[in-house]
Design goal:
single chain; alpha+beta; FAS1 domain; 3 domains; seven-stranded mixed β-sheet; 8 helices
Length: 266
């Protein structure tokens, strides 16, 4: 087919406006098959093909699930449902550099919030993490794809009115229906999928550092207890010695086995 022509490599896929691309389609092409399986296990799969509301989905790669050791946990329906909801934000976040100052509530609950960060502060590399999680390390965003419904071909507003039997008399051919203009300017629905390199978990702690932290706390507690015991013994000894001194007892002379009697009052 190209013997008499040429092939040019392009950096993006040319998509016809009449093609409908759902969040499900984007997840299929994102390389996050484990997350898509988890989504299918949950009971919110309908949001992947519905245009009623926009959603922002953070989809961990298969490698991220493997590194997190969660393959077997994907059979637990309750765990999977909570995990999936944690990775979904109601609403569409397209401009990360503008929304980075805010944290957004996930579908899990209002307390499970996701925050964005410009990792290198260069406006190029962004990360997402669970706000308040033990680990300060975020999941880096390594890919993105946007869903959108099929866009109908543009037609003359008058022709459209005629086709529906609702054509009205117009004072001028240049006057367009205000509602048609409003609809054409309204943003089209469609969510967005961000591919991330780590699985988001509420208690996403870095195991080694967390373990050593608690070991250090325990050791400090033990040392503090020992020091308090020693101080208590020393203070008790000093108190007894002071009491004996006030009662008139004097230490015996070296080599003298007899105790020195208390001093007699004059």
């Amino acid at each position: 087919m190209v013997e008499a022509g040429v092939i040019h490599a392009v950096s993006a896929v040319a998509l016809p406006p009449t093609l409908s691309i759902t969040l499900y389609n984007v997840l299929q092409g994102s390389g996050a098959s484990d997350f898509l399986k988890a989504f299918e296990t949950s009971n919110i799969t309908q949001i992947l093909t519905s245009w009623e509301q926009d959603y922002t989905i953070f989809a961990p790669t298969d490698e991220a699930f493997k590194n997190a050791g969660l393959e077997s946990a994907l059979h637990d329906r309750d765990f999977v449902a909570r995990l999936v909801r944690l990775h979904v934000i109601p609403g569409k976040i397209l401009k990360l550099e503008e929304d980075i100052k805010d944290d957004e509530a996930s579908m899990l609950n209002n307390e499970a919030r996701l925050s964005l960060r410009d990792v290198h502060r260069d406006g190029k590399t962004f990360g997402v993490r669970v706000k308040g999680a033990s680990s300060k390390k975020e999941a880096k965003i390594i890919g993105a794809g946007q869903a959108h419904p099929a866009r109908p071909t543009e037609e003359n507003p008058d022709d459209e009115k005629m086709a529906t039997g609702m054509k009205q008399q117009r004072a001028s051919e240049d006057v367009r229906d205000a509602s048609t203009i409003s609809r054409s300017m309204a943003p089209l629905p469609g969510g967005v999928v961000y591919v991330i390199d780590r699985v988001l978990l509420p208690g996403d702690a870095e195991g080694g550092k967390s373990a050593w932290f608690w070991v250090g706390i325990i050791l400090l507690g033990i040392l503090a207890t020992i020091a308090l015991c020693i101080l208590s013994v020393f203070l008790a000894y000093a108190l007894v010695k002071e009491i004996r001194h006030l009662q008139g007892y004097e230490p015996a002379a070296a080599g003298d086995g007899a105790a020195v009697p208390p001093a007699q009052n004059a």
